[in-house]
Amino acid sequence: MDAAKMDENEWTYHGEGNKSLVVAHAQRCVVLRFLKFPPNRNKTSEEIFRHLQSIVDFGKNVMTEFFGENYVHHGEVVQLPLDFVKQLCLKIQAERPECRCDKDLDTLSGYAMCLPNLTRLHTSHFVEHRPILCVEIKPKCGFIPFSRHVTQEMKHKVCRYCMHQHLKVATGKWKQISKYCPLDLFSGNKQRMHFALKSLLQEAQNNLKIFKNGELIYGCRDQRDAAADWNELACHLKPFFYPSNGLVSGPHCTRTIIKELIHVITLTLLSSTDKCRAWDMKLVPSSQGRSCCEASPFSKELLRNGKSHAEGSGLPRGCLLYKTLQAQMLDLLDIEGLYPLYCRVERHLQEFPEERDLLQIDGPYNEAFYQKLRDLSTEDDGTLAYALTKVQQYRVAMTAKDCSIMIALSPCLQDECSDRRPVIPASRARFAFSVSVLDLDLKPYESIPHQHKLDGKIVSYYLKNVPPKKEPGKAGLLAEPDDCTLVLHKV
């Protein structure tokens, strides 16, 4: 990519995370990702280049093995003219949210990552002038811990996401608790998946965004009225799902269009577009892991209807959700079992700091690094090697728990559909689509103590502030024990 020939005005602010900022090109289907750092934290150009290259190597050599080549777009490191970078940063500064401006953009090294714009279709047969809809979902952790190291029984019943919601609302992160539960989305049961996606649309928080032609049209609007947002969203979506005017109108229009969107997303998430066979770990037998979360409103509704559990996982092995779940389940020990092993590695590094590179804490993320992840044993032999393997597996699992799935959809005419391009049918439309996974940076080794502390905080808050669920079958029995009276009859 020759950035020297590009005007900075052709690039627009695309979004940012804690450690990087992304800009998208107006014409080309590419984005540039720049690193961010706290003020006064200087890094050399060589350090920044190595950092970016390690992100590329991790995606290329490790995460591609889990997800398959069609789903992972690792990109490449590019060097840009410094004048171009400075002008670009000045242009987009006003568009950045105030809460994100606590870190400075790297404008001195000239290095950035060049990646495909995943809000666009990336199939080779796509006609670029077509309108494109893109749904970004951050599904979060799709299983309940099965480790014997878990000390709180509640963690075997309620998923991390649902427990964390209560703490986030209490601390003002979000206004209200979402009905979304990741276990419903990962269930493979269409009814549960529909409920999960509808819940995400009702309370998107930071877990769902919708783009039209690369522009954000829905998501992260905590201050707005949900009904107004849905009506506005339906106006954007109607040409995609009902291209002929007058086919859908009236008070049920919005509900009908949203239902179509949910149906298409579900089919796309259950589809497989990668011929490459990713590693199938088969970590947990169905009899061992819980398939539903007690805090999910869907599960509560089942209990009210006299059913003890929902239908378990039925994810097709080729679909991206299945592969995501398998990578997440590299968290074999839970943070409670992992933290003592982290401490073992940390003690060794404090004694022998020169061995940090030898232990591949910061890379290189190559074939040797990946092969070590394949050791799924959970019997601690007391060695540094065992502890290090579990620490690295946990970091990969946390990466998979925080990744985003990008679903790009474009209307497909009947005569254009062919076996070469995957197509999803809707009631009155057909869509060419592509599915990708995003945000695959390896989670930092140094974040493990924070995760351990946060886990305890989440569980402790939930236990103290959320009343325990009544056991099925016992509800209503002695519901008011203080009002019970023992009556003795003469015999």
Secondary-structure map:
Blueprint: E1 11-16, E2 20-25, E3 30-37, H1 45-67, E4 76-79, H2 82-92, E5 104-105, E6 111-116, E7 133-137, H3 160-170, H4 182-185, H5 190-202, E8 208-212, E9 215-218, H6 226-241, H7 253-269, H8 297-304, H9 320-328, H10 334-351, H11 367-372, H12 384-401, E10 404-411, E11 423-425, E12 430-438, H13 448-465
InterPro entries: Ins_P5_2-kin, IP5_2-K_N_lobe
EC number: 2.7.1.158
Catalytic activity: 1D-myo-inositol 1,3,4,5,6-pentakisphosphate + ATP = 1D-myo-inositol hexakisphosphate + ADP + H(+)
The radius of gyration over CA amounts to 24 Å
DSSP helix count? 13
Report the end-to-end length measured between terminal Cα atoms.
97 Å
What structural category arises from helix and sheet content?
alpha+beta
Shape: globular
Largest sheet: 6 strands, antiparallel
Write down the secondary-structure element order.
EEEHEHEEEHHHEEHHHHHHHEEEH
Q: Got a strand count?
A: 12
What is the overall pLDDT average?
84
Tally of discrete structural domains = 2
Helix content: 25-40%
As a percent range, the share of strand residues is 5-15%
Low-confidence stretches: 284-288, 473-491
Provide an overview of this structure.
One of its GO terms (biological process) is positive regulation of transcription of nucleolar large rRNA by RNA polymerase I. Its main location: cytoplasm. GO terms for molecular function: ATP binding; inositol-1,3,4,5,6-pentakisphosphate 2-kinase activity; molecular adaptor activity. The protein has 491 residues and is of the alpha+beta class. The chain folds into two domains: 8-117, Phosphorylase Kinase, domain 1, CATH 3.30.200; 133-279 and 288-464, no CATH class. It has 13 helices and twelve strands. Strands 1, 2, 3, 4, 5 and 6 form a six-stranded antiparallel sheet that branches. Strands 9-8-7-10-12-11 form a six-stranded antiparallel sheet. The protein is globular and about 70 Å long. The N and C termini lie far apart (97 Å). Residues 284-288 and 473-491 have low confidence and may be disordered.
